[in-house]
Structures are given as C-alpha cells and as structure tokens.
C-alpha cells in the first residue's frame, strides 16, 4: 500500500511542479511585456526588478543607457533615485532614535539652536511627515537659477530658513523637500559627521547595498547612464541636476540594491519591529485627516493590498519603488528619461506579480448630458486648479495645465482614471474629491471659469 502512496505522490508532483513552473514563466512573460512596451528599443531605457515571496520574477534592463553611442542598459547601471532617497533619510533617523541620539518629538531647535524661531515647535516627525509648514525650496521662483549647480547643505537650508511657514505647524500636509534637507543637517550636527557617511554606515552596510552611494560635488558616477528629456523632436540630453539637499534626493542606486533595502526592512535588520512600524505609520492631522504618508514612504494600494511606495524624478532620472509586505512583494523601476509614468508602470508590474490584472470591467454608461454636468473648473488650493472637459464621448481631467486624462464612469458621480484605475474622482454638490492610488486625498471646490 505504501508503494502505491509513494507512486501517487510522485505522479502528483509530476503534474504540480511543471504547472507551477509554467505559471511562473507566464508571470515573467507578462511582466516582461509590460516593461518592454514602455522601455524597449532604440530609446532611453530602464532597469526593472520584480520580487514576490522569495522569488525574483523579473530582473532585466531595457532600452539604451547612452543614445549617442548605442550602449544598452544593464541591471548593473546606477541611477539617481531622486526622492526615493527620502525613505533612507527617514530610516537613518529611526536608527538614531533607537540609539537614543535623536527624539522624533523634540523641538528641532534642540539640535539646531540657531535655526530661525518659527513661533511654534517643529519636530523631526513634522519634517519627515511633510507637516512642518516649511516652504518647499524647490518651488521657489529663484530655484531654477541654482537647480543645476552644487550648493552646500548649509546653504540649502539657509535658502528657505527665513521664509514664512505655508501653514501652522502640524495642521496640514504639503510635500516639502526642505524638511528632508533640514533633517540631513540635523543628522550631521548631532553625529559630527557627513550625512552621506552616516547613511552609508547605518543603512547601506546593514542592508548589503554595495552599489549605492551619494554623489558628491564634482564627482562623476561610475556605471551611470546618460539622462534624457523628451521634446517635439525626440530625446535630447537632460541638463545635469545639481547637488543641494542630500537627504531629499541624491542617492544613486541599482534595482538589485533596492531589493536588498526592502528585504532588510522586512527582516528587521535595520531596526526592531516596533521602530519599523513607527517608520511606516501614517501621520494623522489634528482634525483626524489621514495624510497617508509615514516618515519617508507614501501609503497606497494595489487592488485590495496596502502598499508603501515612493517615486522620484530630477532631470531625466525617474525612479519608483512599491512594497506590499502582506504579500512579500516588491517592485523597483529606474529609468533615464522623463517621457513615461514610472509610478503607473510600477503599479502595473506589481498588479501582474500579484495576479490582479485581469479583473472584470466595472465601467457603467452615462448619458452625455450627465457627463457634461461635471464639466467645469475646480480649485484644490491657491494656484492649484483642476479642469474637467467633455471630449470624444468622455470627460477628461487636467490639473495645473498638465496633460488631459480620460475618466471612466464607475458610478453616477464616481470616475476612475483610465490609465490608473486606482486613482478616482468623486463629484459632490460643491466640487470633487480625488482619491489617489497613494498619498493624501484632495478635495476641490467648483469655481467660475478663470
């Protein structure tokens, strides 16, 4: 009898194992199709890694690292990851908090006593969570004059130090590179060492990130692709982005190293589980609104699953990472041109990895008169206007004069973006509310056409 049981088990394995291998191969093919459609060919390219539950499903490069010489992209290429850097800055703070060197809720003037008094207590939690009210220095009218030059961390912080707060400390959420530049200066002050050396020691070394580093002034990064902008006449070399804020966007890394980062976080090799949860936890405003941002990572969703994610762009560099801890899944995408939506492509890759791509359509039909009723101008805030128009049988949305995006009706007054179904607009009696795939929801009030 036991011989028959063993024989049955062997037969079962013969069927199951090839089927599992075929499923993995099919998943890899789908992932490869998504990435190659966006980046393959005689154009700037990308390095992509997709991981799930102990397996690297895809780790490939597409397109060109150098258009002029026809040099192919490789997975070993190092890209500037721009604002993806912020999670590493936040993690460095958490290591110093765990060591008792920093306190998330202490007044930052404890560490920088000469920093301008803003009339209220600003903490590291405010800086990392984008609730400090500090003016985002990269939005300044004069910023373009220094955007392509190298300036010191001290001079960067002096650039915004005396500007008025955008709002009372802790009362609102507004993305600000200034908070991360100032955090970098605090880390240098309390440790007496260069910020980039502390990150390399406390994060890169602990995570096994051997190919990651900060670019220093005047340094040429080895194994780094050229970066490109796209215009009416095709691709052309992007102007070099300067070095200024360090902790807000200046790490260079590879897709392989970014997977090492995710696994180090998952395995609590950087700090303990309680500290990790503090790092992840979304910041809640006094009125109860959820910012959907932790201390360096956005909170989002892919299908039914919660994500931690962040993008980055500077010059022609584009970067995006998505983590789904519940499914032990991770995607990193690094590109060297500005003509693709790296967040959307990374989301599609994650959906494919999780088997979420082939859901049934939920589009409903609405009469033209109903659709035209939503046409108008909506204000999110000062200088921040979204317009809705009717075009070719659909309504479309454009924010801040940007591209027009098709909206698909999924309810009588609810629409999803055709290109990003997880971002949705709910129209109300007075305006609309945008529920993003990641980050804080935003309301807008309907106004007369400007």
Written overview of the protein:
The protein is of the alpha+beta class and 450 residues long. The chain folds into 2 domains: 80-353, 3-Layer(aba) Sandwich (Beta-lactamase), CATH 3.40.710; 368-447, Lipocalin (Beta Barrel), CATH 2.40.128. The chain contains 10 helices and 21 strands. It has helices at residues 2-39, 86-98, 124-129, 153-161, 177-191, 195-207, 255-266, 273-280, 342-353, 368-372; strands spanning 46-52, 55-62, 64-66, 71-72, 79-80, 213-214, 228-231, 234-237, 251-253, 298-302, 305-314, 317-324, 329-335, 376-381, 384-391, 394-399, 405-409, 414-417, 420-427, 431-435, 442-447. It has an 8-stranded antiparallel beta barrel with strand order 14-15-16-17-18-19-20-21. It has a 6-stranded antiparallel β-sheet with strand order 2-1-13-12-11-10, with helices on both faces. Strands 5-9-6 form a 3-stranded antiparallel β-sheet. β7 and β8 (234-237) form a beta hairpin. α2 crosses α6 (195-207). The N and C termini lie far apart (84 Å). The relative contact order is 0.13. The model has no long low-confidence stretch (mean pLDDT 92).
Secondary-structure map:
Layout (H helix, E strand, L loop, with lengths): L1 H38 L6 E7 L2 E8 L1 E3 L4 E2 L6 E2 L5 H13 L25 H6 L23 H9 L15 H15 L3 H13 L5 E2 L13 E4 L2 E4 L13 E3 L1 H12 L6 H8 L17 E5 L2 E10 L2 E8 L4 E7 L6 H12 L14 H5 L3 E6 L2 E8 L2 E6 L5 E5 L4 E4 L2 E8 L3 E5 L6 E6 L3
Antiparallel strand pairs: 1-2, 1-13, 3-4, 5-9, 6-9, 7-8, 10-11, 11-12, 12-13, 14-15, 14-21, 15-16, 16-17, 17-18, 18-19, 19-20, 20-21
InterPro entries: AmpC-like, Beta-lactam-related, Beta-lactam/transpept-like
Protein name: CubicO group peptidase (Beta-lactamase class C family)
Keywords: Signal
